[in-house]
Design a protein that fits this description.
heterodimer, A: mainly alpha, Four Helix Bundle (Hemerythrin (Met), subunit A), 2 domains, five-stranded antiparallel sheet, 9 helices, 62% helix, B: mainly alpha, 0% strand, flat
Chain lengths: 269, 118
């Protein structure tokens, strides 16, 4: 890209007085922070993978858990999360367009694209809140927790026969079901200790991973807003460059990047 | 205020170059959107189409890595940084990530085959 210094031999490059990376201190630190943050998210996703493989048979299928869509009835697996992904990709594009406008010192367009990025971020956070609401409240029918903690699903609203957890549907009914249900409780929705869709661990990971990511989106919106105000005030116009926009841009793209992985490993795979 | 001499390393470009860059940005947007569309469609139809789950799973993972590459390389601009900077950022992460994934799969599959954690 334009603006880079001409190529120099490595001796001159590492000879001092100039960043051998040809990147400013602030931007390097943003990158190093993002690498460390990537480790944190990897830790979360890898521990998720560990538990999932350990409980391969009884792990809930995300497609059957997140089936709601606003203003629509019935089952719509993947649709809502696809919309959320689209919103985040879109806001990534507006962010990179703001950075590009900054390179041309085009204040008007920086303002326009940053404003859209902030809107996209807020819509995404709102969507996540909506998804949490539905996950916490669960279904009308609920599920049943046996004495040993196993979650079984009702076959129908009569609540007399049930399905055992697992890939293949095993139905238990009649006296056998009554005996099995003895001492158990009905459960609705999900929290950190109970999950009507199956293993509580699934709920724990859902809350922690999407919660940690949502916190990142939210702080990204705050950072973007602070920089947006500075752009409006003309701080960077005066400074002669819009590198701050580039730095928050890096953070914002990283948030999108993490979502790409969360989307795949939590919802698709 | 410019104590870290940011101005020396700042990227600027002309109107003309900006035009080309915006084009790239939108092309990559369509790539990302297209991949996401393929992923969602595949997620909805793979059972009806009778595809093997392992094939679908690996398709998802490969498509995800392609998406990640485009975001980091182009939107985060890493592709156009100096080589030594690319290595300084990407290598430590990739080495540890691969190591952790290998460890995780080895241990989790072992535990799964030996009657779980409980």
């Amino acid at each position: 890209m334009a603006g880079h210094s001409p190529t120099v031999d490595s001796k001159t490059l590492w000879g001092g007085g100039f960043s051998p990376f040809n990147v400013s201190y602030g931007k390097i630190m943003m990158w190093f922070f993002l690498v460390s943050d990537a480790f944190t998210f990897s830790g979360l996703l890898i521990s998720y993978g560990f538990m999932r493989h350990s409980f391969a048979e009884s792990w809930p299928v995300a497609e059957r858990v997140f089936t709601h869509f606003p203003f629509m009835h019935g089952d719509h697996p993947l649709l809502y999360v696809a919309l959320m992904t689209f919103i985040l990709i879109m806001s990534s594009v507006t962010m990179v367009l703001a950075v590009e406008a900054g390179h041309r010192m085009d204040k008007k367009n920086v303002i326009k694209w940053m404003a859209w990025t902030i809107v996209g971020g807020l819509v995404f956070v709102g969507s996540q809140a909506w998804e949490w609401y539905h996950f916490i409240h669960g279904t009308e029918l609920g599920a049943f927790q046996l004495v040993d903690g196993t979650i079984v699903q009702w076959v129908d609203a009569a609540k007399e026969s049930l399905y055992l957890p697992g890939k293949e549907l095993v139905m238990i009914s009649g006296a056998e079901a009554t005996a099995m249900m003895k001492g158990g409780v009905e459960v609705y929705g999900a929290n950190l200790t109970v999950n009507e869709y199956g293993l509580p661990l699934f709920g724990d990971f859902f809350f922690f991973i999407t919660g940690f990511h949502g916190t990142h989106v939210f702080s990204g919106v705050v950072l973007n807003f602070v920089i947006f105000v500075n752009v409006l005030k003309g701080t960077y116009e005066k400074r002669g460059h819009y590198e701050m926009v580039e730095k928050v841009g890096l953070y914002w793209h990283f948030v999108d990047l993490v979502w790409v992985f969360v989307f795949t490993f939590f919802y698709l795979v | 205020m410019d104590f870290d001499r940011t101005a020396e390393y700042v990227n600027h470009h002309s109107e003309e170059e900006g035009k080309a860059m915006r084009k790239t940005i939108w092309v990559i947007f369509w790539v990302l959107l297209g991949i996401t569309g393929v992923e969602v469609t595949l997620g909805l139809v793979w059972q009806d189409m009778g595809l093997a789950w392992s094939f679908v799973k690996w398709t998802f993972i490969i498509l995800t890595l392609i998406k990640a590459y485009y975001i980091v390389a182009y939107y985060m601009h890493l592709k156009h940084e100096y080589k030594n900077f690319i290595y300084a950022v990407a290598l430590p992460y990739l080495v540890l990530a691969v190591y952790l994934i290998v460890m995780m799969l080895t241990e989790a599959i072992y535990i799964h085959e030996h009657h779980g954690l409980m």
